[in-house]
Each structure stands twice: as structure tokens, then as C-alpha cells.
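pls ignore typos typing on phone
flavin-adenine dinucleotide + seq
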Amino acid sequence: MKQYDIAVVGAGIVGLATAFRLMQSRPGARILVLDKENRPGRHQTGRNSGVIHSGIYYRPGSAKARNCIGGYRLMLDFLEKSGIPYRISGKLIVATGEPEENRLQELYRNGQENGLERIRLLTARQIRDYESHITGKAALWVPYTGITDYGRVATALAAKLRAGGVEIRLGQRVKRIVPGPVPELHTSHGIIKANRVVVAAGLQSDRLWGGNEFRIVPFRGEYYFIRPPKDRLIRSMVYPVPDPRYPFLGIHLTRHIDGRVSAGPSAVLAPGREAYGKFDWNARDLVDTLRFPGFWRMALQNRRAGWVEIRRWLSKRAFLQAARKFLPQLQPDDLTGYHSGIRAQLVDRQGRLVDDFVFRRAENVLYVLNAPSPAATASLSIGRHIAEII
Ligand SMILES: Cc1cc2nc3c(=O)[nH]c(=O)nc-3n(C[C@H](O)[C@H](O)[C@H](O)COP(=O)(O)OP(=O)(O)OC[C@H]3O[C@@H](n4cnc5c(N)ncnc54)[C@H](O)[C@@H]3O)c2cc1C
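k done
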């Protein structure tokens, strides 16, 4: 049986970025990357908004703040060197009511603390200088924010890994991990041994970890595209002020790297971890979620927000309500082409949505338990951090 120095489970952007960093820092090491799918980046990595986040939202000193700000530079450098298209077009965060105006000030201070010196608070009139069709009471201009395609980043990382001698096995599911001095991966194609294992399995990460403290609760983010001519009303990206109780940023308008403009994502509970279709579900996932006490606590504590999300799922009019606050011209008929991604959101037994990135270690296995947004932006920094730990 071939034994590896390091095995990485998951060829999403976090697993690939980790293997990339390990390849650079440990020349000659025998590294293996495994994924159950037949191509890299099929789940969260290939189904997100593509935004290169600046770090404005995250608590100073948190793992999200550190890795997003550090990862931003590394990502731009990687995109540049790999010839992957990206655009730093900036974004507006728009307050449409008084409580949001206050939160905008807090966000401004947070951004300054995170070293984002060029962010600017705008009056209602100044908003038009950046997005001529957007209305609001005030806004924050974040010039650092960019857009790319993380699916392409995953493909490029995989190509560089292969060229550097890293083995990537696709279509091979890890069923169980036995930690120990030399951990064993029990896979659909037999047992693999490695001196160190990194698990970056996104939506399945808690299952491979096996602990009881947390559960991944899948939240589906639904998107629609805005059809012409209304798509021309948006130049770059327009976000609402996020509700600080949730790790989600609210339905925003995004001009993607291919020029299309989307509205989304929502954040509705998904009845399956990979249930991307509007009515898809998965019995095992559903039972797993419903059996976790933290889920019921979360559902009870957030029932109003949950109801808003269900309405958005059922009706395009409800979906658009948030975006119409700053772009009233949008009508449900302007929406076309449903698309979705599912967030792997860690929830604890008390029902709290875990905000920060979470890593856990058992002997020689390191688990990435919570890597939600902005983990795509932050991936190369997360990879560097993991490489240092192991
Ligand atoms: C709707 C949405 C919008 C987002 N927008 C942004 C954004 O604009 N900017 C940003 O920075 N971030 C964004 N994110 C977050 C970002 O996409 C994720 O944080 C990031 O992709 C996580 O990467 P990952 O490698 O951890 O997970 P994934 O990409 O989900 O990869 C995990 C991999 O593990 C594999 N796997 C799972 N179980 C097994 C197993 N048992 N055996 C073998 N392989 C296995 C899966 O097949 C998968 O390929 C968004 C996420 C979503 C869902």
C-alpha cells in the first residue's frame, strides 16, 4: 500500500489551496488530494458569487478578518500570474433606513480597524456618483472589492498541483477516517495511509469529523439573473447593510466577470446538502439536520428570519423586496435563469450559527469544520495557515 506524507480530502478551493501551499513549502513531499466528484470545485467553490471580499465585515483579529485580508493579496497575485480574469470594481453597501445608517457607521469603523483606509461614507446624493440608478439614505463605498470566477481558480490550482507532482484522485469518496500516528482513509476504492491528513470537505466536513458538538446545516443561496435592459442599471456591486445577527450578507446585485448581473443569494434552509434544484431534497441529510438539537434551537430563535426566507423561496416578488429598496425599478419579470449554491454553515448545539472559521485537530488529522464566505477569497491564506500548523 502506497503511503503519503500528506493527504488532503476535498478538491474545493480550500483543499486545493492547502495542497498548493504544502507543495511549495515541502518540495519532494508525497501529497495526495482526493475528491468524491469527477472534477474539482463542484460544490461551494463552483457555486458562489465570485466576489473577492475586502474584509470590511469581519471582527478585527478574527480568523475571517486575518485570512480575508491576507488572502485578498494572495488571490490577486494568483489571478494575475494564472491569467484568470478579475476586476476590482468596488462595491456599494447601501442603507435604506435609519437603523441601517447607524450600522453603516459601525461597518465603516470596522473597516478602518481592518486597515481599509480608502473606504468612504457617502451621502444620499453622492451615491449617484458611483451607481447612478441606486437610491438610499447613505452608503459605504468599498473600492477594494472585486469579482472573479472561483471555479476557474480551482481548475488552475489543480493544474499547478499536477504539474508539481501532486496526485489528484477524483471520483473517490472518503467514507471514514481513522486518526492515529499514521491516519487511515477508508475510501470507496480502498484504504489509504498518510502521515498527515487535512479534511476540507465543505458540506460534508462534520460527517468525516464525527464529533457531536456541531452540525453542518445547509443554507441554499438562490440567485436569478437580471435580464436586459435592466441589467444596465448596475455598474458593479450593490449590497444591503447586513443584519449583524446572521453571517449572511443579504440579497445583493452583482455584475459578474462574464458581464451578467445577478440578484441573490437568499439563505433558505436546504432539505439536502447538495440539493441544488429548487425542489430537490435528500432524506439522509434531512434526518441528520432534524435530529440535531441545535437545529431546533436555531429554528426557534430565528423563526421570523426563516419565514422571510421561505417567502423568498416561494415568490420572486418577496425575493426582490430587499433589492427593490435600493433599486425600485426592478420587477419580478426582470428576473430570469434560476441558479443556486449551498453554504456549509456550522451550527452548535445551542443553535448558534458559528461565524468564524473553525479548525479541529485529532492526532495527525486536521479538520476544516467551518469555512463559509469569505473562504474563497481567503483560501490561499487559509492554506498557508494549515500548512504551518501541520
Ligand atoms: C451561495 C454562496 C455564495 C458565496 N459567495 C462567496 C463569495 O462571493 N466570495 C467568497 O470569498 N466566498 C463565497 N462563498 C463561500 C465560498 O464559496 C466557500 O467558503 C468556499 O468555496 C469553501 O471551499 P471548500 O473547499 O471548503 O468547500 P467546497 O468547495 O464545498 O469543497 C469541498 C469538497 O470536498 C469534497 N468532499 C466532500 N465530502 C467528501 C468525501 N467524503 N470524500 C471526498 N471528497 C469529499 C466535495 O466534493 C467538494 O469538492 C459563497 C458560498 C456560497 C454557497
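The two ends are 23 Å apart (CA to CA). The CA atoms of residues 341 and 352 lie 22 Å apart. more later
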